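Quick check before the chapter quiz. The format below is the same one you will see on the exam, so make sure you can read both the input and the output lines.
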Amino acid sequence: MTATHDAPHDAAGLARLVDHTLLKPEATVADVQALVEEAARLGVYSVCVSPSFLPLDTSAAPGLHVATVCGFPSGKHHSDVKAAEAARSVRDGADEVDMVIDVGAAIEGRFDAVEADIAAVRAATPGDVVLKVIIESAALTDEQVVAVCEAAERAGADFVKTSTGFHPAGGATVHAVELMARTVGGRLGVKASGGIRTSADAVAMVQAGATRLGLSGTAAVLAGLEADAGY
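Here is the expected output.
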C-alpha cells in the first residue's frame, strides 16, 4: 500500500514548498526581476533561474533562497564541466543546484557512471549547498528510477527530482513521486517538477511524497488552492 502524505491546507503552506521557476531560453533580466518580485509577494521558498542570471538581487525578498540548474536540460555534459558550472553558480550566490543526470547512461544501466557524475558535482559544492538530482523519471522504467535514486543517495545528493520540464517524455507523475519517495525513504527530499499546473496537481504530488515543488505557474496554483473550499 502506498503511504499518503499530508499536504498543506492553505496557499501559504504550499508556497513554502515551491521553487518558483523561470528557465525558458528567451527569459530576460526584466523577467527574472519580475520573478523575484512575484516570489516575494507569494511567499515561496526559492526562485530557480538559469545560471547566467546569477548573482541575483533578492533584496526585495528577504529570506528567499536562490536555486539554479546544472547540465541543463540534456545532462549530456562532461562531469567536470557540470562540476565547474555548479562551483561557479555557488560562487555567484546559489544556495541550491539542480543537476541533470546523463539519462542515456541510466537507460543503458550504467549506474556507476550516473553515481560518479553526481559525486563530481557534489564534490564541487559545499555541503551546505543543497544538491538536487534531476532524473527525467518519465524517460525511465521503474527499475531505472529506483537505481538512479539509489545512486543519487550514495553520491551525497540531498534531493531527487522528477524532471527538467523540457523532456518530450513528460514531467512529474504521482506514480514517479511515490516510487522515488519510497526509494529514498525520507533520507532525501523529493522534488516534483514539470507539468504541475493546477492546485489539484500540486496537492497530489505532495500527498504522493514530494517535499518540494518546481512550478512556473505558481500564482495560478496558489490561487486555485485558495479558491478550493476544501483547503
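If your answer matched, good. The chain has a mean pLDDT of 95.
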